[in-house]
UniProtKB/TrEMBL annotation:
Organism from which the protein derives: Schaedlerella arabinosiphila
Keyword Heme listed: no
Alphabetical list of InterPro entries matching this protein: Cellulose_deg_GH3 (IPR050288), Fn3-like (IPR026891), GH (IPR017853), Glyco_hydro_3_C (IPR002772), Glyco_hydro_3_C_sf (IPR036881), Glyco_hydro_3_N (IPR001764), Glyco_hydro_3_N_sf (IPR036962), Ig-like_fold (IPR013783)
Protein name, entry field: Beta-glucosidase
Protein family (similarity comment): Belongs to the glycosyl hydrolase 3 family.
Alphabetized GO MF terms: hydrolase activity, hydrolyzing O-glycosyl compounds
GO BP field: carbohydrate metabolic process
Domain of life per record: Bacteria
Stretches assigned to the Fibronectin type III-like domain: 335-406
Keyword Mitochondrion assigned: no
Gene3D superfamilies recorded: Glycoside hydrolase family 3 C-terminal domain (3.40.50.1700), Glycoside hydrolase, family 3, N-terminal domain (3.20.20.300), Immunoglobulins (2.60.40.10)
Keywords recorded for this protein, A-Z: Hydrolase
Amino acid sequence: MTRTLKKRPFYGSQSQEIAAYEAPHRAAARKAAGEGIVLLKNEKQTLPLAKGSRIALYGPGATHMIKGGTGSGDVNEREVVNIYQGLLNAGYTVTSRDWIDAYDRIYTDARIAWRDGILERAKEEEFFIAYSTSPFFVPDGPDVEKTDADIAIYVLSRVAGEGADRFNEKGDFYLTDQEAKNIRDICRLYEKVILVINTGGLVDLSFADQYENIGAILYLVQPGMEGGNALADVISGQAVPSGKMTDTWADKYEDYPNAMTFSHMNGNVDQEKYEEGIYVGYRYFDSFQVPVRYSFGFGLSYTDFQIETVKVTAGSEVAAEVKVTNTGKLYSGKEVVQVYVSAPVGKLEKESRRLCGFAKTGLLAPGESEILTIRFPVYRMASYDESSAEWLLERGTYGVWIGNSLADSRMEAMLVLEEEKILSRVKNICPLREELNLLSIPEEKRIARYEADLESGRGNGAAEIPLDLSGVETEVIDYEAAYEPEYDEVAQIVNGLDTEQLIRLATGEPAKGQGSNLGSAGVSVPGSAGETSTAAFEQGVANIVLADGPAGLRLMQTYGVKDGVIRMPSFEASFEHGFFSQGFQAEGTPYYQYCTAIPVGTMLAKTWNEKLIEETGVMIGEEMEHFGVTLWLAPGMNIHRNPLCGRNFEYYSEDPLVSGKMAAAMTKGVQSVPGCGTTIKHFACNNQEDNRMGSDSILSERALREIYLKGFEIAIRESRPMSIMTSYNLINGIHAANCRDTCTAAARQEWGFDGVIMTDWTTTEHGEDCTASGCMRAGNDLVMPGQFSDHDNMRKELEQGTLKEEDLRRCITRLVRVVLRSGLYETTE
Ligand code: BGC
């Protein structure tokens, strides 16, 4: 086979005309948003709303809907369909234009003041830091007056993003006084009110209990560029809601187990002690029996479903056959069936129930049924024993709970395991260096709960099924068998490279005028986050382009080409001249790159629809191919450990199975387009944004493996993503980027990861305890975007013998293997 490098064009279009891919991609984004909206409340038949109704629309999100979060996860789409527009498109009349116009003026002033504040700060500090740590707070609206409408809608919006955590204060987790007043007035003036929550993360909703006339609550999340249309689809009944929560919505913030210690809450952003251990999200609320507002997995529909368990079988995998029938009369709809497992009380303390499988039906017409078979390996039910470094199933009875939310599931089968089964033998990783005072439930309480649960199972007529695992082999990991690349051809290329080439390939590509940072922005594709080095171009190793996600592809909307060279404004200039290149006049011939802004990660997950996520991935892959991007810096899959994490919107869930499954589906979609790959991030325990480069996540190995690594493990095993991005934080005192235990032992040796691992951007810039050589030793192959000092560091350590050339060569071999999989080559047999 011969491989030749294709000539790289200037990507994008010279015309602003709508390109062929845009309409179908927008339609897909609209569908995904429609399916990710969660109907939290619907009383007195408030929804759907008859076509032609007159609506009084209020709230910051009416015309300034938040389509996604800020920072690297932002996307520069052609336009956003806001809620006002979406309602008009659907044929509704909006009666509150005066309020909306008045709010628009307030909003524009606030935006300008925010921009100027950042530019002012940027005189003293780095622009990106000033930008990313200055969240924009949505301003309050004016007072509300009565209009001639059948119903009022209030849209509550919050922006959050990279670099800063949220606050449990008014204006963020809580309503501002003016918002509270507006809602009070709306409920006084209008008989029927719909509350729409347009936030990436959770907010306090207790205010809604005070007003009986808030008949419906829709969680719109942050829905991407088609959000207004998607919301109108749901309001009109054109799309019947089928989204379900992927987090637990507590009654109040203080109910979350780490509420008072999370991030800035205890004044210590250097050390984050994960003392709740495995009790994260619903695992905590369920096990400690703390009442919640909306259970994990909860979401209403306009129709009703009956869920009947047909059969449960168990062997090396558990299979639950479930019949779902649409018992309503008016609407077709989709339902999500969730299977939870409760484990017996034994030597390891376990959460009461754990999600082990789920599936979504197709669109069922009234009266129609579908049989879903939900299968999962018994490994999903296993717990990690730190004392023996084993994944095991203790002997006893495992309850299989089936339903359409955690709260509404019933024990339908009891799997009886006579003898303890060790499923996998690994080695201990990431040792704790500090004492942790782990949250725990006294054994007698756990036994009482377990017995009550079994009693409920018996009451339901749950069948006892023997779980015979005698035929299942125990997997034993051989850590000595170091991972070696499989392609001789690649090894040959890399063997022919000299040490300087290896060093340069280990970091991003230098671009003129970018100061000490090498490839802090891609040069071949404007707006991309970076690209790899051309150091071995002559040997046929291309520089591949890496661009952000996860809410679409983040590229610059406009750039210019003059004298055959790409001209693009700096991030700062494009910010100043029109908030990220909208309206920016490029030098030379203008080129346009319009990407589709899809719903944020947490909203995609709320669809619980792996097929739909995979289709969304295909669409992203097509745009990557179109714009010359090889690696998408997404999906983000950190766990929602606390609702105040500034980047929760990018991540899927508080549950690792949901995170892993969604990331796998997304990866399958993206990687079905030849030459395109995902980058699952941020590996691992990046659960807070304040002091994100320096905070140390201190946690037990059990919590690390069962909660924080689990999603990555699932995604890697099920979808073979092309790359992983390590996180900025430390894990038990070691920078994630320099952590051999997670990068090599867990990802490669245990789970068989065969792609490239890269750092998050500028990871090695912050202190001497995280170095480029440390990355190479850990098996972290690529320092992004890289600095000249990283090269110096590797040269020095190679000379001193603290970095072995074979380690560096191994990293570069993995990188080159991914480069050769890119779409930049033409191959002939
Ligand atoms: C973010 C990453 C992102 C990278 C490149 C970093 O600041 O943490 O998620 O992919 O920048 O833009």
